[in-house]
């Protein structure tokens, strides 16, 4: 029975974690975040897949595929949008 409570608590904690799964668009391009830590960045018609991680209210993006992040920083705003690089990125619905 205790195992059920532990599993339920783990599921709730995972659901409450910040997730960027989806596509965010801004004036210069778009960022398509996947749950596996990869993001496809399309800026001015050029596309590249990078690694990302979330650290508090920051999204750290960087490195070629499999990189450890940290080159670019976006901030997670209270409304769920992302800001950085002189633009606001809004999640597509």
Give the overall pLDDT as a whole number.
79
Count of DSSP H/I helices = 1
Portion in helices = 10-25%
Structural class: alpha+beta
Oligomer: single chain
Largest sheet: 8 strands, antiparallel, barrel
Number of domains: 1
First-residue to last-residue Cα separation:
39 Å
Radius of gyration: 15 Å
Give unreliable regions as ranges.
1-16
- What share of the residues does DSSP label as strand, in percent? over 45%
Describe this structure in words.
The chain is α+β, with helices and mostly antiparallel strands and 93 residues long. It has one domain (17-86). The protein contains 1 helix and 8 strands. An 8-stranded antiparallel beta barrel has the order 1-2-3-4-5-6-7-8. A hairpin with a 2-residue loop joins strand 7 (82-84) and strand 8. The longest helix is centred in the first third of the chain and has 15 residues, at 2-16. It is globular, with a radius of gyration of 15 Å. The chain starts with a helix and ends with a strand. Residues 1-16 have low confidence and may be disordered.
Summarize the structure.
This protein has one helix spanning 2-16, and strands spanning 22-25, 29-33, 38-43, 46-55, 58-62, 72-76, 82-84, 87-91. It is of the alpha+beta class and 93 residues long.
Question: How are the elements arranged and paired?
Answer:
Layout: H1 2-16, E1 22-25, E2 29-33, E3 38-43, E4 46-55, E5 58-62, E6 72-76, E7 82-84, E8 87-91
Antiparallel strand pairs: 1-2, 1-8, 2-3, 3-4, 4-5, 5-6, 6-7, 7-8
């Amino acid at each position: 029975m205790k195992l059920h409570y532990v599993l339920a608590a783990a599921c709730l904690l995972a659901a409450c974690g910040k997730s960027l799964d989806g596509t965010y668009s801004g004036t210069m391009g778009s960022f398509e975040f996947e749950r596996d830590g990869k993001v496809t960045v399309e800026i001015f018609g050029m596309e590249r897949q990078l690694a990302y991680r979330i650290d508090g209210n920051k999204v750290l993006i960087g490195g070629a595929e499999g990189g450890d992040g940290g080159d670019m920083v976006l901030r997670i705003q209270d409304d769920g949008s992302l800001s950085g690089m002189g633009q606001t990125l809004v999640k597509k619905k």
